[in-house]
Amino acid sequence: MGFLDVLTGRRKLAGPAPDRLFAISTANVLFETQLALKSRGAAAIVFQPLATSDFAQIVTDMEEVVRATAGDSGTRVDTTDDTFGFRWLVLRGSDFDDLVVGVNAVSSALEAGGYGQRVLCAVFAFEDEKAKPVYWIYNYKRGAFYPFVPAGGDQQRDNERELVLKAQVGAELPLESELERWFPLWGIPI
Q1: What is the mean pLDDT of residues 151-177?
Q2: b/e map 164-186, b = 16+ CB within 10 Å
Q3: Apex CA 35: angle with CA 32 and CA 37, to 5°?
Q4: Structural contact between residues 120 and 46, judged by C-beta atoms closer than 8 angstroms
Q5: What does the alpha-carbon distance between residue 90 and residue 176 come to, in Å, rounded to a whole number?
Q6: Which of 37, 109, 178, 189 could form a disulfide with 31 if both were Cys (CB 3.0 to 4.6 A apart)?
Q7: First to last CA, the chain
Q8: Is 104:154 a contact under the CB 8 Å cutoff?
Q9: Can you give the pTM of this predicted structure?
Q10: What would the pLDDT profile of 39-90 be if each residue is shown by its tens digit?
Q11: Which of 54, 185, 44, 48 is nearest to 106 (CA)?
Q12: What's the rounded Cα separation, in Å, for the pair 61 and 59?
C-alpha cells in the first residue's frame, strides 16, 4: 500500500488491534508479583464528548450496561469533565479484570457508534510499594501503552522511573516505542 493510496482513499490505514487493551490483564500479574505495583481499583476511559443526542445516548447506555454487569463485583461508575473538555468515565472496583472489560465495553460502543476518533485513552491506576501513583495509559490511536509516573512538585514526572518500568515490562505489554508520544496526563481523577 502506498502513501498515495491512503490519500486518495483507495486504501485505509489499519487501526490498532482492539484486543491490545486486554494485555494489561495479563501484565497485572507481572505488576503484582515482580514489580510491586498494586492496582488502586480504578480505571478510566477518556474521550471528547459531543453535544449530540446520539452520542449522549451511547454514553448513557454504556454507563448503564457497565453498572448492570458490574453489579456482582461492586464496580461503580462515575463521570467527570476536565478543564480541557474531556470526559472521564471512571470505573472503581476490586476486580481488575472487570475494570478492563468495562473500559473495553465503553470504547467498543463508541467505536460502533462511529465515534471512535473521539476516544483519547484509557488509564489504569496503580501504586508502588511506597503508595506513590503509577499510571499505565493506553493510547487508542496508537494501540500501545506507556507508563506515567508523577513526581513531587507541580506537573513534574519521574522520567527515570518510567524508563525503568518500560524495561521491566518488556514484551508483556504492547509499548509505545516513541518516547515523545508518552504524554503526561495531569489531574488524573483516579
Answers
A1: 93
A2: ebbeebeebbbbbeeeeebeebe
A3: 55
A4: yes
A5: 23
A6: 37
A7: 41
A8: no
A9: 0.86
A10: 999 999 999 988 888 888 888 887 777 777 666 667 888 889 999 989 999 9
A11: 44
A12: 5
